[in-house]
Write a structure and sequence with these properties.
Elements (H helix, E strand, L loop, with lengths): L2 H23 L9 E6 L3 H18 L3 E5 H7 L12 E6 L4 E8 L2 E7 L5 H11 L7 H8 L22 H12 L15 H10 L1 H27 L3 E5 L6 H14 L2 E3 L10 H13 L17
Parallel strand pairs: 1-2, 3-6, 6-7
Antiparallel strand pairs: 3-4, 4-5
Length: 306
């Protein structure tokens, strides 16, 4: 993704997208009560387009403005629709840039219990796919091939991280050396360096099993920490969110674990897993009810991190 090109595409599309949304919902601009927008975190150029557009609308229509944290919105996606978790609930939020366990005590009361200390789970999926020669985004393709593979065929290490934090950098390195050695060693300390021809044949012959084994380890890392968080907090309402929550292996595994542990598991519809406007809207709705509005100054401008 080229940030400059992404921001230009946002500029080209934001007016048509808003116009189409108004047409499909049969709502006029003057009918809305407030304007919610993503303030951070994310690509600064793309965020700037949305922020300035939202602020312009707020001034023109004299409507209150509501700045939204992108990751809070992913969690709040679980409140869309009729099947909603009761508070408090735990949410495993997994995407290409973030991996977190969040305790949600109310719509505007979220506490991070654990997060990644290096790479995110979604990045681990995509980087592994790249090593396998799969196109971007590779996470969904690993999920696709994993359906036909044996998740126990190849063993990858689970990082030893204390508490509820995550780490995926060591796992990515282990996968790199495993593929470079054509499966002859699971240890990245042993760099055998087989020929590229041998590597490619090994990956082609074992693609489904490799994908299933990689996915199995990433999912087990996520769920082991989530189970620990549930045990420590005593909370049995469990949710997932973020782009990786669309992964079929994760959805199946958390459902099965929920049955075993007696949890009430809530999984968003696929359209609310990846980045979407509905999750920003539902978060804005609860902030509107609480009277949490944002000024037009720089404090509510676009930020790469938050």
């Amino acid at each position: 993704m080229v940030p400059e090109l992404a921001s230009r595409a946002h500029m080209q599309n934001i007016v048509p997208v808003v116009d189409e949304a108004l047409k499909q919902s049969a709502v006029k601009l003057n009918d809305i009560d407030a304007i919610a927008y993503t303030s951070a975190p994310g690509l600064i150029g793309s965020l700037l387009v949305g922020v300035q557009f939202a602020k312009s609308l707020s001034l023109a229509l004299d409507k209150p403005l509501i700045a939204i944290h992108h990751m809070q919105a992913h969690v709040m996606a679980n409140l869309i629709g009729d099947n909603r978790p009761e508070f408090p609930f735990l949410c495993l939020t997994v995407s290409g840039g973030h991996t977190q366990i969040v305790q949600c005590n109310g719509p505007n009361d979220l506490v991070i219990l654990g997060e990644t200390i290096d790479d995110a789970a979604g990045e681990a999926f995509d980087k592994s796919a790249k090593l396998l020669g799969l196109p971007y985004p590779g996470g969904p393709l690993i999920d696709k091939y994993a359906a036909d593979g044996d998740p126990e065929k190849f063993k990858f290490p689970e990082p030893k991280v204390e508490g509820l934090d995550f780490s995926f950098s060591g796992l990515k390195t282990s996968i790199l050396y495993f593929l470079r050695n054509a499966g002859k060693s699971n240890s990245f300390k042993e760099d055998i360096q087989v020929s590229e021809v041998v590597q490619k044949k090994f990956m082609d012959d074992n693609l489904s099993d490799i994908c299933a084994s990689i996915q199995n380890r990433i999912v087990s890392i996520l769920l082991n920490k989530l189970q620990k968080a549930a045990d420590e907090t005593g909370i049995g309402n469990i949710c997932i969110a973020g782009g990786v929550s669309a992964n079929r292996g994760l959805r199946k595994s958390i459902t099965e674990l929920g049955r075993t542990k007696g949890w009430k598991v809530f999984i968003p519809a696929f359209e609310y897993c990846t980045d979407n406007a509905a999750m920003i809207a539902i978060t804005g709705y609860y902030k509107y009810l609480a009277g949490e509005f944002s000024p037009l100054d720089s404090a509510t401008s676009a930020r790469a991190t938050w």
